[in-house]
Design a protein that fits this description.
- Helix 1 crosses helix 2, helix 5 crosses helix 8 and helix 6 packs antiparallel against helix 7.
- This protein is of the alpha/beta class and 282 residues long.
- The protein starts with a strand and ends with a strand.
- It has a single domain, classed as Protocatechuate 4,5-dioxygenase, Chain B.
- The longest helix is centred in the first third of the chain and has 18 residues.
- The protein is 38% helix and 23% strand.
């Protein structure tokens, strides 16, 4: 079974298992994080998707912890579909990796072959391509949180270089169709940071506009505000795809769990914005 080895262990997150577990626990217990370790897994099944940041854990880990705490308290899903932006410009425009497992210091997470193939069968725009994932961090950094909480994890990694409204909408609908056809219990995770390297007040103002569209599950509105305001949100395409997928599966609203910036971690003139948002059904 081919294994993808970690690319950013020791950089974006701790490179040793014991140090990484401590770092994740510190994210949950942080004053910016939920403040305690999560309880669960629950058995509600209301969370269909989540928006989660992907910066280094020292900056965005406590915000990411809010989404993962909410998912863990909700249930243990069978699988995760993790969508992230392609920062490196390598590979196909929308790339799904069928590589057998992804390694992190906490072990290996298996690609859900059945769900991945079901998505590929239904999509005319998603390509089978591991090259786009070789150096990309936006999906990799989500796995240690899932492994810490759930142990064995199955997931489908989708990297998006193309993030236009039409492409992202189609990707989201293909994901929903595949999940429904397989009868899978899957949570769709959209990996994104919000404003990049702008004054804190600008980040708060622009990011709030984007977040309000996400909370309303308004994918076209999110695309419009990102374009019109020039918001440097790196993963708006994955978020649009998640909104479309979760809406098709019955989500009715988004719930803001936490917003913060890198300036809340340490003083700086220009900040990066981070948000955790749950996409839920009644």
């Amino acid at each position: 079974m081919p294994t993808r080895h970690p690319r950013v262990a020791g950089q974006f997150y701790e490179g040793r298992a014991d140090s990484l577990r401590a770092q994740i626990e510190g994210s949950f217990k942080s004053k910016i994080g939920p403040g305690c370790l999560p309880t669960g897994p629950g058995n509600e099944g209301r969370i269909l998707g989540a928006v989660v940041p992907h910066a280094g854990y020292v900056y965005s880990g406590p915000v990411a912890a809010w989404s993962y705490s909410a998912i863990y308290s909700d249930r243990k899903p069978e699988s995760f579909v993790i969508l992230g932006p392609n920062h490196h410009g390598v590979g196909s425009g929308v790339s799904l990796s069928l590589e057998g497992a992804w390694e992190t210091p906490l072990g290996t997470a298996s690609v859900d072959d059945a769900l991945a193939k079901a998505i590929l069968e239904r999509s005319s725009i998603i390509d089978k391509d591991s090259e786009a994932h070789a150096y990309e961090h936006s999906i990799e950094v989500q796995l240690p949180f899932l492994q810490y909480l759930f142990g064995q994890v199955r997931f489908v990694p989708i990297s998006m270089m193309l993030q236009d409204l039409e492409t992202a909408t189609e990707v989201g609908r293909d994901i929903a169709a595949a999940i429904k056809a397989k009868g899978a219990d899957a949570v769709v995770v959209a990996s994104t940071d919000f404003s990049h390297y702008v004054p804190k007040e600008v980040a708060h103002r622009n990011d709030d506009m984007a977040i309000q569209r996400i909370l309303a599950l308004d994918a076209p509105g999110l695309f419009k505000v990102v374009e019109e305001r020039g918001i440097s949100m790196c993963g708006y395409g994955p978020v649009i795809a998640a909104i479309e997928a979760c809406s098709a599966m019955g989500a009715k609203r988004g719930m803001l769990l936490k917003y913060a910036t890198s300036g809340d971690v340490m003083p700086m003139d220009e900040v990066v914005g981070y948000a955790s948002i749950a996409l839920t059904r009644p």
